[in-house]
Amino acid sequence: MKVAIGVVPGESGDDALALGALLCQALGAEPVLVHIYPAAYDYTSRGHVDAEWEAYLVEESKALLDRAALDATDVGIVDPETVIHGHRSSGVGLAEVAERMGLDLIVIGSAPGASNGRFQIGSTADQLLHGSHVPVALAPSFFRGLRPSQLGRFVAAFQNSEESRAAAATAAGFARRAAIPMTLLTILIRHRMYGSAIRRGEDLVLEQLHTDVAAEQDRVREDVCQGVPTDCVILSGDDTFSAMRRYDWEGDELLVLASAKGGVVRRVFLGDMTYKLIRAMTVPAVVLPRHT
Fold first, then answer.
1. Is residue 187 assigned to a domain?
2. Confidence grade of residue 47 (pLDDT, cut at 50, 70, 90)
3. Is the dihedral of CA 118, 122, 125, 126 positive or negative?
4. Distance, CA of 103 to CA of 277 (rounded, Å)
5. Which end of the chain has fewer CB atoms at under 10 Å, N or C?
6. Range of the domain at 134
7. Whether residue 88 is found in the same domain as residue 221
8. Chain CA centroid to CA 66, Å
């Protein structure tokens, strides 16, 4: 198993490096440090300006990766493989490298502006979360300072769908490989309606949903999570943020999320619930391609 760690200057790159090292440690994977530099347009200038500019970018990229490889020793990565690749879109470039090299996972940091422990979707994440053919791991802002000594649990977001079952199976495979437990976590959103007289009806609907999901969670735990210590959790709230706050996060979890069912098979496609979970999460997450 090989993990591509997206290297960029600054704190986001440090966060990705910290998460990449943690995943390589847990899964016994090999790290590959990847930097995407902005490739020149496909036309030749008379003064060879584009060629000279690209040569400069390549040299700068090599220097950046040399510094990243040196910094990587602080998080337990020694003598990693390094790759530079030119593309005008960093997310597309990372996906191309992963496909060309047969890599199994891409790790990136947050876009600027996120609060510590939160993830902000920028252009790179948006490109990968709507097209990568391999899972994409998201390191929250300041993960370099929040990083636990080791991964303690995989938490699979489960919404009683085909994609969620596939995500649970992938999370179980990760958990077996890392020899750590996992959790099946379901978020139920209470849809409020006007008028206090129908509050009891809302409660009855939520109770039935809870019963149905609990039964399906038990089936998945028995059929899919064999050999992995697994607990099942169902949380409810008026929105995703309030529900996620009810989970007792320890800080050493990795959230495993499924793509939306409407996406292309074997590609990541960010659906509405997955997007809300990414915004609400306080731990790193991995978003899986469809039917992974």
1. yes
2. low
3. positive
4. 26
5. N
6. 2-146
7. no
8. 25
Q: Does any domain span residue 194?
A: yes
Is residue 292 domain-resident? no
- Between the alpha carbon of residue 6 and those of residues 105, 147, 267, 268, the distances in Å are 11, 17, 19, 17
pLDDT digits (tens, 9 = 90+) for 135-181: 999 999 999 999 999 999 999 999 878 888 999 999 999 999 999 99
The CATH code of the domain that includes 74 is 3.40.50.620
Give domain status of residue 61, yes or no.
Answer: yes
Residue 62 token pair: 């090599």
**Which residue reads 């079952």 in tokens?**
165
Which SS3 state, helix, strand or coil, does residue 151 take? Answer: coil
Residue position matching structure tokens 């996120």: 114
Bridge partners of 236? Answer: 188
Quote the CA–CA distance of 173 and 178 in Å, as a whole number.
Answer: 9
In angstroms, the CA 221 to CA 182 distance is 10
CA neighbor of 13 nearest in space, from 135, 122, 174: 122
Instruction: Note the pLDDT tens digit of each residue in 107-141.
Output: 999 999 999 999 999 999 999 999 899 999 999 99
